[in-house]
Amino acid sequence: MNWWVSMPKVELHAHLNGSIRDSTLMELARELGDRGLVHFPDVERVILKHDRSLTEVFKMFDLIHVLTTDHETVTRITKEVIEDFAAENVVYLELRTTPKKNVSKGMNKKSYMEAVLEGLRAVSNVEVDIFSEPNFDCRASSGISARNNECESNGTGKKKIYVRLLLSIDRRETTEAAMETVKLALEMRHLGVVGIDLSGNPIIGEWLTFLPALEFAKEQGLLITLHCGEVPNQVEIHAMLDFLPARIGHACCFGEEEWAKLKSLKLPVEICLTSNIRTETISSLDIHHFADLYTSGHPIVLCTDDSGVFSTSVSGEYSLASSSFGIQKREMFQLARNAVNFIFAGNKVKQELEQVFDLAAKTLK
Ligand code: 6MZ
Fold first, then answer.
1. Which of 202, 293, 304, 339 has the most CB atoms around its CB within 10 Å?
2. Atom 6 (ligand 1) nearest CA
3. Nearest CA to ligand 1 atom 15
């Protein structure tokens, strides 16, 4: 097996609807095409196009959401995405998704998330650990039930992946809609929801619209990660850093002042190399901020962002960083291992992941 695949990895920045297999998207598009709901050849062309600007990427997401936003499909894509990450030895996955309403399908944000949980439970070829921290009682009911957790014995002898969920606020949403997502996240904490993400088209929406919901989430103990500096917006970048999120994603359009602030705060950065290059938020890898952050020892974690949309994988991102920046396998292994420090799950999971990396360190050559 390829070394990069064999190495245990931690994925902290993966959007559910960006991580769908092309084959599944094509199948869904064909079905809707047959029912006359989309024009299949147009959709096929969009799905198979792999170089997209940032603006085109968000149009692509709107199309994906047309194909996927019903309960059954949300369950299916969740199951497949987890299987795909597990197959390449991702041992801990923080999967993020935007809870959605789709009135025509009887879907609200809560039922969308129930469909996601159903997808977690549907995975059978690998053991999925979705249980949150021991101080949450998994029998306490909120209308959504936990199954694959420590309340039941596991002992299956199968490969294991820890999955935790982040609920995303889309930058198109209102303050009220953002607050609804945070309240849902709080209601689902015993089911593996550990935090909140702010994402969506970075040229849409104002930071102050989301701030009340993000502040409330933080007060309630949810951990926050923000898409920060995907486009040049110095005022917003400073406001986001002042908010002190637990992590940020991207950090592509930072100036000297913003780098200095980020580094003094030691905020971990989720780095998505292929995504940044494909969307042209960074023009080439030799000027990517990965190199500076890595050499200065700043906390970073390599992630995919949207493995489906950008045709990448976590193994691929590690291999790419190694070859582009001349970093040896042993150091890349250490980089993967360091990511355990930045996960939103608690100490028990961190300790268990340390053991996974200890074991791999002995066996990987
Ligand atoms: C900002 C992004 C993103 O939530 O429907 N998303 N937001 N920047 C990016 N970089 C390219 N990639 C994905 O997954 C898709 C949604 O995630 C956000 C967008 O809001 C997109 O609609 P979910 O599962």
1. 304
2. 200
3. 17
Of 53, 61, 67, 252, the one to substitute when testing ligand 1's pocket (max ligand atoms within 8 A of C-beta) is 61
* Integer CA distances (angstroms), 145 to 86, 219, 266, in order: 23, 25, 37
In tens, the pLDDT along 199-220 reads 999 999 999 999 999 999 999 9
Distant-in-sequence, close-in-space partners of 161: CB < 8 Å, separation ≥ 6: 82, 85, 86, 90, 91, 92, 93, 126, 127, 128, 129
Q: How far apart are CA 198 and CA 166, in angstroms?
A: 10
Enter the pTM of the model.
0.94
Q: What is the ipTM of this complex?
A: 0.99
Tokens of residue 106, six digits: 């009887």
Token duo for residue 365: 């050559």
**8 A C-beta contact, residue 196 and residue 169:** yes
319 lines ligand 1 (CB under 6 A): no
Which residues are CB-neighbours of 167 under 8 A, at least 6 positions away? 96, 97, 98, 99, 113, 181, 182, 184, 185, 188, 193, 195, 196, 197
Q: What is the CA radius of gyration of the chain?
A: 19
- Assign 365 a pLDDT band (cuts: 50, 70, 90): confident
